[in-house]
Input
Amino acid sequence: MIGLLLSIFIFNLIAFTTNKRLTVNQILHIWCFTTAFQMASDVSLEFKYYGYWYFTKKIEWSSYLAHTVLIPPVNIMFLNWFPFGKKRVKQILYILFWTLGCLLYELLTLLPEPYGYFHYGWWNIWHSAIEDPILLVILLVFYKLICNIEKKK
Output
């Protein structure tokens, strides 16, 4: 639990003190999208198929922290620093850099408690290596959709 709470504090602090790009409206959209998207995928992967889980295989209040306040600030940081307007190669390298960072963080969460809180079932780091860049691209597409809607208003 210590690792999760420390991560939540650090990620939120960095996300909200360094943000220079995202508006409050965009942050709210990203936060809600991230939470809903994560909950939707975790219902299957975590609770039905036991691919992975937080803390225990049961539904617990502590795992809601991981679902609702851990990943959204990471996505805010990713979008805030994304090299929009730069060459595609730089954008791809940025996504790969963030994927590597996410994978390293995931490995840290596998540490024993109280620092670790994540557990693998049949899931492994290679599944995440494939999934993470796809999720980051989906996040980018959603962010661009929000920006386009805001422009039309």
Notes: The helical segments are 2-18, 24-48, 61-81, 88-109, 125-152. The mean pLDDT is 94. The beta strands are 52-54, 118-120.
